[in-house]
TrEMBL record:
Keywords: Transferase. PANTHER family: SULFOTRANSFERASE SULT (PTHR11783). It comes from the Eukaryota. InterPro entries: P-loop_NTPase, Sulfotransferase_dom. Coiled coil: none annotated. Residues 86-269 form the Sulfotransferase domain. This is Sulfotransferase. Belongs to the sulfotransferase 1 family. GO terms for molecular function: sulfotransferase activity. It holds the Pfam family Sulfotransfer_1. Its EC number is 2.8.2.-.
Length: 283
């Protein structure tokens, strides 16, 4: 049985990841974003159930998941307008499931021949600056961003937090590849709660871990419910194994070399019979 079907597994060490959405200014300005919505969008949103996450963000239940209000309009715009290329690579995760780590691994694998090792952009820039979120990085203030020239490197590489069922149709229908990373739910919750507890803006009362646990189990968290999100990608990966690579955070920690090789093969950069595999993995 897959580990994510149980909440009883003890928490492990986790690495903190920093996303553009996850900061105190966004927690404290979600109300301002809602105030900026036009009348038509306000009327649409009124039809969605509303709740508040333990992070302090307002959430709207949209297409079966809880979408943070601050990115809701960008998500809908992205769904309507984003056009995927067959050569695109999409990194999909829930927040606090190893997004930063997977971005760094995928970036290094995909673009390893496009710069010298000592000039790897990851030595200078945060992975989130190099691999942008499709929805709220590109569509937050623009319904028609220029995505054909959004990268300096060959092949476009994006990330997204949306559930599989809510991905833009062009992503699901094209031949682009999706790399999904899931994580033990207890570790995800602890990382989420710890991270946001440090970032809550002034005027926000702290939320106990018990309260956060109850909300998480009810599925009330950013882009949750957790289990629906994970199972959506897992089931899709069973049906479309050549399109979706399903990885587990704990497996990466336990045997990074094997799973990095698996990632490289999925992206088409390694062959089982390639004698240079070990040399490439060391790089």
């Amino acid at each position: 049985m897959l580990f994510f079907l149980s909440l009883s597994r003890p928490a492990a060490c986790f690495t903190m990841e920093k996303t553009d959405m996850c900061n105190s200014s966004m927690v404290s300005t979600s109300h301002d974003v809602e105030e900026s919505w036009d009348d038509e969008f306000q009327q649409l949103v009124q039809t969605f159930p509303k709740d508040k996450s333990f992070t302090g963000m307002n959430l709207y239940f949209f297409q079966g998941f809880w979408c943070p209000s601050i990115v809701l309009k960008a998500v809908i715009s992205c769904q309507k307008h984003f056009q995927s290329f067959d050569s695109d690579i999409i990194i999909a995760t829930l927040p606090k499931c190893g997004t930063t780590w997977l971005k760094a691994l995928t970036f290094s694998t995909l673009y390893r021949n496009q710069f010298a090792r000592e000039k790897n952009p990851l030595l200078t820039y945060n992975p989130h600056s190099l691999i942008r979120f499709i929805d709220y990085d590109f569509y937050f203030n623009d319904t028609g961003p220029d995505l054909e020239n959004c990268t300096l490197y060959q092949l476009r590489l994006f990330s997204i937090h949306l559930p599989y069922a809510s991905l833009p149709t062009s992503i699901k229908d094209s031949n682009c590849k999706i790399v999904y990373l899931c994580r033990n739910p207890m570790d995800t919750l602890i990382s989420f709660w710890s991270f946001f507890s440090r970032l809550r803006g002034e005027g926000f009362e702290p939320v106990s871990l018990d309260e956060a646990f109850e909300m998480f189990c009810q599925g009330i968290n950013e882009f949750g419910p957790f289990f629906d999100h994970v199972l959506g990608y897992w089931r899709a990966s069973q049906e479309k194994s050549s399109k979706i690579l399903f990885l587990q955070y704990e497996d990466l920690k336990e045997d990074i070399k094997t799973h990095l090789k698996k990632l490289a093969m999925f992206l088409g950069f390694l062959s089982l019979r390639n004698k240079r595999n070990n040399e490439l993995l060391k790089k």
